[in-house]
Specification:
mainly beta, Jelly Rolls, three-stranded antiparallel sheet
Length: 90
């Protein structure tokens, strides 16, 4: 099964809350409803979503959340709904 949910990021961003990780998923799409959200992906570098933009995150890609705006809201669609998030060594 797939899952969709809205994420309201909690301000302010604290870098220690973000660790390098990946998700064991088949599909992940993130759509920015409001504000901005930035992630650093292996092989791509930092990518910023702004309101009304989205990305499809490649399965298993290692990444670190870099930051977000105080008003950031995201819509995330995942498949499968139940999946593992794995912390990656620094």
């Amino acid at each position: 099964m797939a899952a969709a949910h809205v994420i309201r990021m909690i301000a302010p961003f604290r870098s220690k809350l973000s660790e390098r990780h990946h998700h064991n998923i088949q599909f992940q799409m993130v759509y920015c409803l409001k504000g901005w959200f930035e992630t650093d992906f292996d092989g791509l570098g930092p990518q910023r979503l702004v309101a009304r933009s989205c990305w499809v995150q490649p399965p298993g890609i290692r990444h670190t959340v870099v930051g977000w705006s105080d008003d950031c809201e995201l819509l995330e669609i995942l498949m499968p709904a139940d999946h593992e998030t794995v912390a990656d060594p620094a």
